Amino acid sequence: MKISDYAKHLLLSESIEDKLSPPAKIWEEEETFPLRIDKPSRSKSIQFSDKKIKIPRLEHLNLTSNRGLTLHHFANHELMAIELFAWALLAFPDAPKSTKLGFIKTIEEEQNHLKLYIERMNDFGIQFGDIPLNYIFWKQIGQFHSLETFSAILSLSFEGANLDYSQVYAKVFRYFGDHQTADIMLTIFEDEIKHVKRGLRIVTKSKPEDQDLWTYYQSLIQYPFTPRRAKGYSYLPDTRKLAGFDANFISKLGLYEDEYTGRVNQESLKKFQINEVLLRKNRLDSITIL
């Protein structure tokens, strides 16, 4: 199979089953030209929607129905990531082979995340597509002018923020005694470190020598998209150390504020012991605290 054929399959197939098709182990050589697809094909139940659906508050995750709705939000993010990394394979055919293989590995891991979320939300009585699906990731394709801008937005920002979110939700699910769902969040966290590292390598490789990483990152994104998108409810700087960011970037991101900063109830974060202590999974899949 050719990489471009696989990417088209993920983007143009309508069913979840097809979008979960695993990648090949060996790829045929090919000559391609840039192809930019405006939106993915999807079956009726998983179409994009402009209807705004709020994610349940952390303190309401004692209810299994709210856990299912929360995982539905996360599953949507995974599906968009699968599609957009496939989009990048088509949009940037001249990318180094190592970059393409990295994107394919990310797709494979995102597919696993999507399956984990769907299986667990089903346990809570929620089917994927039961609530409207936003397309916040896809709304950014107008900014994807290069591998660097793509990586700055999708990997350093959206996936970077998930380094925080996966830790926050793992702790909240554990607080309510749901260790199975917490374990899923930690699986996502460990993979997300790798995804952010892959994007960071792309951005760092092209960074001008006279610019620091933070300044270069800001040059790759355009308002109204801001660095706020690169962190979660609670900013956990040690997660960025694990992903390989330098101390200046970590500090500047932590200090960054815009008009949307401070909309989260900080008292609820304290209740769930959301602090800078990280939960990790070791090689034996047991939970450790670092």
List its salient traits.
single chain, 290 residues, mainly alpha, two-stranded antiparallel sheet, 2% strand, globular
| Helix count, DSSP H or I runs of 4 or more residues | 10
**Largest sheet, if any?**
2 strands, antiparallel
Count of beta strands: 2
Provide the residue-averaged pLDDT.
94
Strand order of the largest sheet: 1-2
What global shape is seen? globular
Task: Give me a quick take on this structure.
By secondary structure, the protein is an all-alpha fold. Helix content is 54%, strand content 2%.
Architecture blueprint of SSEs:
Blueprint: H1 3-12, H2 16-19, H3 64-91, H4 97-123, H5 147-175, H6 179-206, H7 213-220, H8 237-243, H9 247-255, H10 266-271, E1 279-281, E2 287-289
Antiparallel strand pairs: 1-2
